[in-house]
Write a structure and sequence with these properties.
Elements (H helix, E strand, L loop, with lengths): L10 H13 L5 H21 L7 H18 L7 H28 L3 H39 L14
Helix pairs in contact: 1-2, 1-5, 2-3, 3-4, 4-5
Length: 165
């Protein structure tokens, strides 16, 4: 049996999660939702364009769920703390996995809710370990550069930069 070190995160979703979590706190709420939904859709759309059958109803449920995660994250002030990053990542993972796992499985594919929830537990546990590990490592390494660059931008979809003292 081969060891799996992915911690439940594909490279596409891992890149999306890290970049999203770092950027969402800078967005105004409705734009964070739209950015999350678009970003998730691209995770499925780009491979589809390249000839892989990746689009489906799961793309819609995933996009709406990741948009909701973006909305939640947009309420956070960007502070670069790996613990804030991990807290948001864990909350976002729980929301995303619940909506795309047991909820979607029950409502769309008719899987009994209790079975879908029980089946989701090991999958979500791996996601939680993965996002916590990525959060604690990536936030302190990447946040300073992102914060410096985004704080200087003035776009309608971004929150106003704080006044410098």
């Amino acid at each position: 049996m081969a060891l799996d070190f992915s911690l439940g995160i594909s490279w596409q979703f891992g890149a999306l999660a890290v970049s999203s979590m770092l950027l969402f706190p800078y967005f105004r709420a409705r734009y964070a939702f739209a950015a999350g939904a678009l970003a998730y859709s691209l995770v499925d759309a780009v491979p589809y364009i390249m000839g892989y059958p990746t689009l489906g109803l799961w793309t819609l449920t995933g996009a709406l769920s990741w948009g909701l995660v973006g909305l939640i994250f947009s309420r956070q002030k960007p502070d670069g703390s790996p613990f804030t990053f991990a807290k948001l990542g864990i909350a976002g993972t729980l929301v995303f996995d619940f909506l795309t796992g047991p909820m979607a499985s029950s409502l769309i594919w008719g899987i009994p809710f209790a079975e879908a929830l029980l089946g989701q537990v090991p999958f979500t546990a791996r996601h939680l370990f993965g996002i916590a590990a990525v959060s604690l490592v990536a936030a302190p390494l990447i946040f300073p550069a992102i914060n410096k660059r985004i704080a200087s931008l003035q776009y309608f979809f971004l929150k106003p930069a704080p006044a410098s003292a």
